[in-house]
Amino acid sequence: MKNSRQSEIVQFLDAEGMLTVTELGKRFGVSEMTVRRDLVELETAGLVRRVHGGATRALGRAYEPPFRMRQAAALGSKQAIARAAAKLIAEGDAIGLDVGSTVLEMVPEFVDIDNLTVVTASLRVANRVAELHALEHSVRLIVTGGVARAEELSLTGQSAIEFYRNIRLDKAFISVGGVSNEGGATEFNLEDAEVKRALINSSEEVVVLADSSKFGQTGFAYVADLRRVSCLITDSGIGEKVLSDLRGIGVSVTVVDPV
Questions:
Q1: pTM, whole model, 2 decimals?
Q2: The pLDDT value given to residue 78
Q3: pLDDT tens, 15-26?
Q4: Judging by DSSP bridges, how do beta strands 253-256 and 231-235 pair with one another?
Q5: CB 142 within 8 A of CB 97
Q6: Which residues, in sequence order, are bridge partners of residue 20?
Q7: Residue 139's pLDDT is what?
Q8: pLDDT tens track for 94-112
Q9: Residues with Cβ < 8 Å from 46, sequence gap 6 or more?
Q10: Which of these, 159, 176, 107, lies nearest to 138 by C-alpha position?
Q11: Is residue 173 within 8 Å of residue 129, measured between CB atoms?
Q12: Nearest Cα to 210, choosing from 255, 152, 151, 154?
């Protein structure tokens, strides 16, 4: 409950710029003391900046929200997007699963597909695959190697990049921090973005998973031109103009309803 509330606080501040403690308390039906504790935790995590009587969002492009916050945000949309993405996987495919909370939601969705090779630079994804799939029987799991990032548990560095350069995949499933026509697909962290680019370059098809809050956002690190994307899957919160602009430059977009 607390994680969900704090994620919603961040979303409200993104949309409205600044809110008071009193306003937030009324929206969530909690005491002002509870709101103040939430804001202290969010400020400590770097997600908000407290001001007199309330809080604001004043974060730069390089700021990376903590994984637990991203995982709790827009969960219904992420699950619907992940389900649609999993339907693109065919028996015998060699796929790359990127780091990121939306891609992680894919793993339970392809349990009935056999003879898969799954390559990932995410320790979270690797652990979930090992828990839910019959390794060596239905899924061959390959972890790239590299240096593990704290909190994200993504593997970065030359080992991960070189691994992707030396293989060829049918499909890559990519999470991103932002999507815009001008900036393309972008990410918060430079090291993760380098690994994402190597994964994309090794793959015949590239599927980007991005909930509607990512559109119009530009992160610090460039990942890919949208024309390189085979399919982009998002939720029904995407604006009609944004959708029209994407399709206008030739991007295939699949829109799903949140769970």
A1: 0.79
A2: 93
A3: 888 899 999 999
A4: parallel
A5: no
A6: 54
A7: 95
A8: 999 999 899 999 999 998 8
A9: 59, 63
A10: 107
A11: no
A12: 255
Tokens representing 20 are: 């008071």
49 within 8 A of 55, measured Cβ to Cβ: yes
Provide the 8-state DSSP code for 89. Answer: -
Token pair of 192, please? 């993760």
Q: What is the pLDDT of residues 165-199, one digit of tens each?
A: 999 999 999 999 899 988 899 998 999 999 999 99
> In sequence order, which residues have a C-beta less than 8 Å from that of residue 175 and are 6 or more positions away?
98, 99, 100, 101, 102, 103, 208, 209, 210
Strand, helix or coil for residue 163: helix
Q: What confidence score (pLDDT) does residue 136 get?
A: 82
- Which residues are registered as beta bridge partners of 224? 185
Q: 3-class DSSP state for residue 246?
A: helix
**What size, in residues, is the chain?**
259
Six token digits for residue 9: 């606080």
Question: Could you report the per-residue pLDDT of 105-133, keeping only the tens digit for each?
Answer: 999 999 889 899 999 999 999 999 999 99
CA distance 62 to 46: 12
> Please, what are the domains in the chain?
2-59 (1.10.10.10), 69-256 (3.40.50.1360)
CA angle centred on 90, ends 113 and 119, rounded to 5°: 80
